[in-house]
Amino acid sequence: MRIxxxxxxxLGDGIxxxxxxxxxxxxxxxxxxxxxxxxxxxxxxxxxxxEAGEDLRDHYRWHLGxxxxxxxxxxxxxxxxxxxxxxxxxxxxxxxxxxxxxxxDQYTAAGTPTLIWDLDRQLRPDDxxxxxxxxxxxxxxxxxxxxxxxxxxxxxxxxxxxxxxxYLATAERPTPLVYVGNQYDRDEAFDRYFAPAAATVAHxxxxxxxxxxxxxxxxxxxxxxxxxxxxxHRAALAxxxxxxxxxxxxxxxxxxxxxxxxxxxxxxxxxxxHGVDAYAPPVLRVNDGQEVADKLAWLESIAGSxxxxxxxxxxxxxxxxxxxxxxxxxxVKLLEGLS
Length: 339
What we know:
CATH topology of the largest domain: Rossmann fold
Number of domains: 2
Shape: globular
Oligomer: single chain
Order of helices and strands: EHEHEEHEEEHHEHEEHEHHEEHHH
């Protein structure tokens, strides 16, 4: 198939001052579609070139018009007041939503098979587009919205295949606890799980956290470049998988899970997450901040040992169902079911 792909983000490292968690898997997913024999046309602006100065045009094709397509995939965008809801050309305007609307009207409304990948759970359950017979919605969730399909956050196959538990266990990990990610709707989880443990161990929080007054004892280091994410995790013993409540209740897991784990940073996983048994072994599940602190003390006692390597290996096994190649096959099957 010739598949149009609408994304507002980067294939490379991008720039620091922008949220784009999909960088961890987007290129692997698109490469997977290409390897499966599909032609991919990228339909939003080439931000890699114009913002990050990285020219990938030898490997990928961008098109800002309306090329002939067999199918369409949206990384779904939503209104962000003052940013993509303003007039084109206004200060601070981004044209992702305008372009998405154009593409939807040109292709989806005319019957082109369309997959909306609702990465942030922003498409309302009652949105009329869900009723279109040529459209399917994919979600990271283990328990997706009625009528939607599970299309999970893809774990790049090459990174998973290269992960060596023994090597990861022997790495120097001077920081017991880290979190890499932005604040968005995570205050409750942070206050329950991370902040109490941070009072007892060395730690850091990297990302955009504009409201930190409630946690004066926590070390916030600000935004970091995409390439730095792996370095932070490689220097840390563990992280806590902090999810907004709208994610936790449906088992919607983000890339922070596998980004940490593939660097050997073990994921302490709140038991309140729906389907927690799909994401972590019982020994790494936590109910509160005290349990986070207790687990960290135990992990420090086994750090570098065979038990540590065995635990990392067990956790890596949990990534297998979420391989990128599996998600690519799922996406293609969903689109073919609409054709």
